[in-house]
Structure formats: structure tokens, C-alpha cells
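TL;DR need C-alpha cells for one chain.
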Amino acid sequence: MNKYRGDMMKLCKVEDLKGGEILAKAILTSELRILLSDETILHPEYIEKIKEFGISEVYIKEEEQVRGQEVVLLKSEVENFFHNKVKSILEKHTYSKNEELMELSQTADHIIASIMEENEVVEKIYDIKERSADLYEHSINICSLATLVALKMNYPKEKVHDIGVGCLLHDLGLRYLALNYMDQNVFQLPKTELTEFMKHPVYGYSVLKDEKWISQVGKNIILYHHESLDGLGYPLHAKEIPFEAQIVGVCDCFDEMICGIGCKRVKVHEAVEYLKNCRKVKYNAEIVNVFLEFTAVYPVGSRVLLSNNTIGTVIKQNKEYPDRPIIQVVENKALRRQKIIDLAEVNHIFIKKVLE
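>> reply
TL;DR here they are.
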């Protein structure tokens, strides 16, 4: 989505502009050259330039029509289709029968193809929001995230496929556990339950280790996705970790945190901060940096408190600054007057906290 939804506009005198309004129509000079294009946020210096050209009135967006420009990994209808597909396959699976799981190889290709259909897929900033825990949605999200990382790191197509298949099956072992690990810190479970939980990568790997249709890359992802560079991961406490498994490990850590699988659910900006702090310690710094390049710190729709003590809503991301989005704030509730603040261009204002 490249524009604000809604086509309501109003004619406004330039002398009444406060700054932060959004142009509904392009401003043309007397020679019919574009001075400012539609969708431009009118910063004070732009307003002065308009005045210099002798322009007295402009069309701006009606304030109540400004809507968030959310950029998602998969369209909702596509994600729902894959969710139902993965759920159907995994729920039919039993420990000794793996034929159904072969379908996930094709499903991974369909997910990867859906992502690559988008224009400039590796150049976008994506709004990845915290949500309730769902094992199947989690697997699809990991597949999407790891695919983006692999594409940005110029992985060949066959390796991206292997990573995708490994992602859809990475938590297969969790299906064999009779434990409650949703939205709670598993490290606070009784020792016997924690020990059992930490075996789930082994359970998943054991099911598929002799299968020919899944590559060694995919098998390694299942076994190693909870290992970390400091040797404090599980179940092997390995320090030598296959690189593809390291990619999935970063994506898995982030998504588990924002949906609450094996931990208490946290806000996106908290999960981002955790990955930043774990660079070079638990996770490969290059992988983390690539991941953070396309992850919005404050997803569209987030209500935030700014450093000037105003409350606003994130409506759009800045491509070059994932942590400094565009905010819509209410200046005057009685008059329903709203203002747009682009944090990439206003250095003295920053986000203090995310509100519930």
C-alpha cells in the first residue's frame, strides 16, 4: 500500500497551515511544473516556499482520513490459507508416519514465492506485531522472516527453499510435549518439565533424520535452532552452529518473544532491544543487523508517548530509520485537529514508551 487510504480532502488557506498536514493534490507552479507532489507532509519550510510562489490555497487530506500504511510479510488471506494448510498437515502427523510432512516442502516454496511476488521485497520495512501464541502461525512467520534474511544475504534459491522447509518443521518436536509453554517463562517450570521442553529439537530431528526429501540444512535447523554462540543454548550446548540454523535462531527468538512461545509475550521494541544486546554474544551480528534492517521497531498502529509528552499513533515507517516512524498526534481534541510528525526529520522528539 503506497498511499493513505481515503480520498477526502479540503481546500485550505496557506496562511492557516500549521505544519504536518498532508497534501491531497500536487502543487503546480504557473509553468505547470510540480512544486510539491501529493502525499507530501507539509513541513514549515515547505509552507514558506509555497508562500514565496504566491500560492494562497492548497488541497490537504481531511485529518480523519489519515490511516496507517501497514506493510505485512504476507497478505491476511494468503497467511490464513497457509496457516490452515500447515495446521492440517501437522495435526495429521503421528510420530511414525512422515508421508504427510513431505507436503510442507511444496508449501515452503509457495510461501517463498508469495513473498517474492512483492515489489522491492528486500527493501521494505515490515510491520511485525505481537500476537497470541499459535504454533502454526509461528512456523509460517519464521519461514517468512528467515526467507527475507536469506534473500538479503543473497542466498541461492535452493538454499532458501531448504531454510523454508526447515522453518515449517523447526518446532515439530513441540507437538510431542504435554506441557503448557504458551505465554510463560519455561525456565520457571519444574526442572523435569523444563528438561522435557528442552528436548523438543531432538524429538523433531529424530523423526526426520533418515528422511531423504528434507535436506541436511533443514534437519540442522530443527536440531540447532535453540543453540547460541555462547554455548548456553539447548539441547546440545553447541558453539559450532550451522549458519542457516543461526539465521532461523535469530528469527525464532524474535517471534517467540512477541507471541509468547516458551516466554512471556513482550512488545516488538523490547524484542528488538534484546536482539541488539545479544549481538556477538548469543547471535551472529551480521544476521541480527540484516534482520533489524527490515523490522519496524514500532509497528503501524502502535500508540506511543513522545518526549514532548504528546500521545500519537504510528501510521507509517521510514525506510532508512526503522526506529523513527511517522506519527499522527492529536493537537486539539475538541476541534479534532491532528498533526503528522515525521521523526526522521524532527531530531528533538523521540518515542519515550509504547502504550497499551
